[in-house]
Fold these 2 entries.
Entry 1:
Amino acid sequence: MVTIADVAERAGVSKTTVSHVLSGKRPVAAATRERIEQVIEELGFRPNALARSLRMQRTQMVALILPDITNPYYPMLARGLQDALVEEGYHAFLCNTDGDKEQEAAFIADAVQRKVDGIVLASLYSRTQDVDEYIKNGAIFVSLSSAIVHPEVDRISSDNEQGAILATRYLLECGHQRIGMIGSSLEQHPSSTRLKGFRKALEEASISFDDTLFAQGDFTRAGGARAMRKLMEQPDRPTAVFCANDLMAIGAMDTAHELGLRIPENVAIIGYDDIEAASLVSPKLTTVLNPAYEKGKAAGQLLLERVRGKYKGPGRHVFIPPRFIKRESA
Amino acid sequence: MVTIADVAERAGVSKTTVSHVLSGKRPVAAATRERIEQVIEELGFRPNALARSLRMQRTQMVALILPDITNPYYPMLARGLQDALVEEGYHAFLCNTDGDKEQEAAFIADAVQRKVDGIVLASLYSRTQDVDEYIKNGAIFVSLSSAIVHPEVDRISSDNEQGAILATRYLLECGHQRIGMIGSSLEQHPSSTRLKGFRKALEEASISFDDTLFAQGDFTRAGGARAMRKLMEQPDRPTAVFCANDLMAIGAMDTAHELGLRIPENVAIIGYDDIEAASLVSPKLTTVLNPAYEKGKAAGQLLLERVRGKYKGPGRHVFIPPRFIKRESA
DNA sequence: ATGAAAGCGCTAACAC
DNA sequence: GTGTTAGCGCTTTCAT
């Protein structure tokens, strides 16, 4: 392990001067600089980022907390975030919480202790009070969850409730009366908001919510398939199902195919997110666009402004409206 | 920012004792321990991981370098890696190189400077000599690339050449004579190895390789679609196309549909990887299974053994054979 | 244009 | 059972 002290000694200068040729923060005589650069090359010196971060009180790192990396929605979000960060010299560090509440909390705590410069929360469980303590201690968050609304935290949202209303209204317009929904544990916030929209749209149409028509699918394809089976094995089964994400909708399609049901003739299915697979399945999935890349990028931009002290005010709110995408499954 | 010194002062003990109640590395009187724990709680003290890492010379972090996080193959790999690491108290930190050679090199350098305990390389460009210097300086790598074969580096491989041979032989058995291939820049290693297998299988059948039947698709869906168009707009177009990954195969299917070609009647298509989307598209994609999750998990296990000094010997080689998956597209 | 020295927050000899 | 002290490798005041 070669350190800045080794370089300094070999070049016959002080650590200070070596540090300054590295950072360029103060002029160094051309001859000295060259000599130092040569020694750095010879010794293969690489500054220790840990030491630097400890001293400078910044890491150039941002953590992205997300529930499921294998749900294509999140990689796309990560891409957007990364695109905003990399060109500014920051790195994103992905934490996959596996949809687990404890792991989510543990990852946030870990990121804070690792002194990341900022945290982007695309979380399922965390609520405002869970992050409040961190914020008081100076942590910088950007929220991608409507469950975290804090006066000092920037937030990107896309009105999940409205998206659910759009989808449900469409089903109603098609003449469906018995409409099921596949969501998730109500503790998981995006699901509960989409459920709220679903219920609102039913109310508009004077249809009362029937909780035997709600099933939990954990936001995964397999979970969606199971939930669909539960819904369809009921005596008076729904003629249409709104799923809180595309992955569950694809799972629901799996089950429908297995049961020999035609989509959308026997049962209509609508998803949420518009991941790439939505236009790959057959029939193509009708869904609600939830622009992951743009959200990630916006999150990165807001975060950087704060991290660099360019913005210090109250929490901003970037709103990206959902859009209904009519395809073939409904 | 509350430090261990603050806790020590307030509890009326030395930093050492506080440190030891944190780590449990030496007995502390029950009364003292309780008092300290209470102060930690009161002050909301969280140890600074940077300082700890600097001192302990380990970070409990592993970097995963990968080309494209939006290619579902890699999230699955990341999942496997994470599953191997998390339960052992390590964290994985994902670096998306965007398929760019410079970025790949930059990320590796960055991970090294950040003092990650180990690096898993699922890279496209890096070759043995590129990592050799790091290894000499004590860095620990696991290679998921057949381009990195180093006597001190553990490697997970699945014989891309053999996989390509399986796919190509199948097309030949189906009677195809003009078979195209969609790959990528030959600098990108997995593509060149799969090309090698492709050529070998043709040779076996005494068919000479026609380089107008090879097109580059950059491992993306859009790139695959473009490459397919190039192949199919030729006068004497192929009746079957082998694609170096599923994403490009799906792109090729997009183009075939656009051109009004039926799959597999007018043109047969085979992919590589068996990502989830392969069984989602219509017709379902015939492909070669490249078990991402298992590879990630194996990588994590090998890496941890080295990181913890449980294994110090020469580079091991875990071999996961490819498997041909017959579906509908060929 | 350059250096000496303090210190970021922690751990671990080495005392007692 | 507990404390003193010396660093981990770097940046940055304050001098000269």
Entry 2:
Amino acid sequence: MLPNLPMSGLPVNAPYHHGDLRAAALQMGMERLESQEQPDLGLRALARDLGVSATALYRHFPNKDALLDALALEGLNRLGRSQAEAATKAGGGRDGFTEVGITYVEWAVEHPALLRLIYNRVGQVDLAADDPSVMGEALYQLRTGIAATMPDGMSKDQRAAAALHAWSLVHGLAMLILDGQVPYDPAMVRKVVLMTDFRDC
Amino acid sequence: MLPNLPMSGLPVNAPYHHGDLRAAALQMGMERLESQEQPDLGLRALARDLGVSATALYRHFPNKDALLDALALEGLNRLGRSQAEAATKAGGGRDGFTEVGITYVEWAVEHPALLRLIYNRVGQVDLAADDPSVMGEALYQLRTGIAATMPDGMSKDQRAAAALHAWSLVHGLAMLILDGQVPYDPAMVRKVVLMTDFRDC
DNA sequence: CAAGCAATGATAACAGTGTCAACATAAGAG
DNA sequence: CTCTTATGTTGACACTGTTATCATTGCTTG
């Protein structure tokens, strides 16, 4: 999604036009989200480190929220891809389902700031915006991805409830770990996720 | 915890000294947390609406984070009280345990901004602070409160895993609802919480 | 009761932020 | 080659948290 830019840092002859400032800004934002727990995604700070004036970013994003939304969307796509990958790799059935849940927590631990940004932004998407389906699409994929890995032999309602149960469990576990309430222990994560049993629903 | 102040609004003869600015600030902050989804807890905004200068609050809080910490602590105490209340009211056993979990979600729905503040602040408590146990104490109470309502007949490890499972489930469900990912449906909440079964651990 | 000290408040200022309007430059289309 | 459009810059405004300095009040102690 983010095209490869010349990684040689800031251009030496800094031309008046940057080339692809939008992609560069998103890339720098993503790098910070990946490398720092509480990244500084301020417009001025980003522009400064991009070697560009503070208001240049307004030619590519209507405001700061739009930039954050773009980053959150990219993060949502990456999370969805990771989930889909885990689902196919683990195969179907109960075991596959468990692995997908564990993958969710692992991904959250590996990309804490990005996961936080996703849920911060997703919560206040303006459904009356120009393109209401961009973020919603990615979210829909994530949710159906979760539902798709449900064990067989359930009614539609059961599947919905079970999907919500599973999503809540791994999301809550991830958030508690990210918030420092629970130490990250892969064995414990597996144990907790395995405690879910759908026999009585 | 917050002593009752004269509720007659701002004093007419606005004396030089406010009386109990700290309590008034906390009360106003708490009111905003209870009545707005995304309350403005800025120091200047609070001071302005309190009819006081921007820097007056620095006589009662070393910085903004300290004010937010105080609000989060109060929120944590309220949440803990609500949990304890639900625990005793529901009695022990599996049914009581279920009710406590449901209460957690209900409390989150009723106090969304406050729950968010709690977990935002709790995540970055400075354990080297002057009084490292204030917030930690309240959290410890909340966690033991959860563990205390576990069904009987479990080993210590089982209890720990089961408590983490339960906490993760209701916390995740609450967060998804607060973030607008899932509509709040009490029946659905009950259904999802009831899906947890500890028979196979 | 008076004096003095500590607690509490106000003002001014600094650095930082998001955002807008006006202006400058480069790139591409006719 | 010219003109339009895209892109970047400068300056400004209204915010924010925070600090240093000064003003006022109230409590304590002689």
